[in-house]
Amino acid sequence: MTASSTPPRGVWVTAAFFAVAGVLEVAVGLWEAPPQAFWPVWEALGRGILYFLLAAGLWNRIAICRTIAMVHCLAVLVTYAVVLGMALFHAPVRFPASVILESLYQVPSCALLLPYLRSPAASVAFPRPLLR
Asked: CA nearest 84: which of 110, 111, 112, 107?
């Protein structure tokens, strides 16, 4: 593999974030699922596969995947800001462990990834259209 064919740092970091998020989604889903339960495991695998598909699209530098990643990061930051606000105002809501664990990973990561995904460097790094 030559130096020109290796993806830029922003591409592999972004793809790695979503791949790890997929692993975390599946692991936490399996951890919270009751024994012998099919549907919670199936849902966790489905959510994880979506992250893996997005990571694969980012690795292949597909432009629409960059847009989806930006929307995901915005949604994560807004959603967890609301959850944090509810927790600070002592809302009588019990948050599952999956929400807490995933927020510890996704909020700081998305706060760091969003400026990159919006940058001109990311526009250059993700040039491929979805369909040719």
From this structure: 107
